[in-house]
Write a structure and sequence with these properties.
mainly alpha; 2 domains; globular; Initiation_fac_eIF4g_MI
């Protein structure tokens, strides 16, 4: 299928065209530009991973890959699964990528109020995909202040959790087990319960009736049904 393909891939143009695109995207350093070209000139996520490997990046520069990846994912008009597939592959290859995603996503959570809707939605869907694939641990959510979300943050987490609820039961089940595990960050499970009750229940009732069953299961499994 088309999942994991770049919309343009190598056909998107020559390296010089991609370099000018990188400048338009305000990717100012040479490292970021070369990362952008490696990603956007690839045919699919496996090819992109290989191209990034050939750049010979130092360990510290892997954080730059993550920043460019999140930037590109957010800049697309609509969500493209290519970026999450590439991100999951990178996270599986080096733990530096997992750490870098933690910090980059935490920065993204802080900047949500300035993010355009499409960037917030694309990033939320990418995060959901990484959680479902267990490419990132649930502790990436530990910094979220579930009791005190801004309007844009509420939108972001609604999009993310709708993606999670729409996933196959086994994938969502694994995530719930991780949220309930003794080693999960303190307060994380309770925070997600609060969010499910306050934000997801009304949303599902109004516009996403198709998610009623998985939401009920999530709330039951997290103990959110006990008020």
């Amino acid at each position: 299928g088309g999942a994991g393909r770049r919309a343009g891939g190598a056909a998107a143009g020559s390296e010089s065209r991609l370099l000018s695109l990188a400048s338009e995207q305000r990717l100012s350093t040479d490292v970021r530009k070369s990362i952008f070209v490696a990603i956007m000139g690839a045919d699919d996520y496996v090819h992109a991973s290989e191209r990034l490997g050939k750049l010979g990046l130092k360990r510290a520069q892997r954080a730059e890959v993550v920043r460019v990846l999140l930037h590109c994912c957010g800049a697309e008009a609509g969500y493209n699964a290519f970026y999450a597939l590439l991100a999951a592959r990178l996270c599986a290859s080096h733990r530096e990528y997992r750490f870098a995603f933690h910090f980059a996503l935490w920065d993204a959570f802080k900047a949500l109020d300035e993010a355009p809707l499409h960037r917030a939605a694309n990033t939320a869907k990418m995060l959901a995909a990484l959680l479902l694939r267990a490419a990132l641990p649930v502790d990436v959510l530990k910094v979220v202040r579930w009791h005190d979300l801004t309007e844009r943050a509420r939108f972001f987490w609604q999009v993310c959790f709708c993606e999670l609820l729409a996933a196959p039961e086994a994938e969502l089940g694994r995530l719930v087990v991780a949220l309930c595990a003794p080693e999960a960050a303190e307060g994380l499970r309770d925070g997600v319960c609060v969010f499910a009750k306050r934000e997801l229940e009304p949303l599902v009732r109004k516009t996403r009736r198709d998610l009623a069953t998985p939401l009920a299961r999530l709330m039951r499994d997290l103990g959110a049904g006990v008020s």
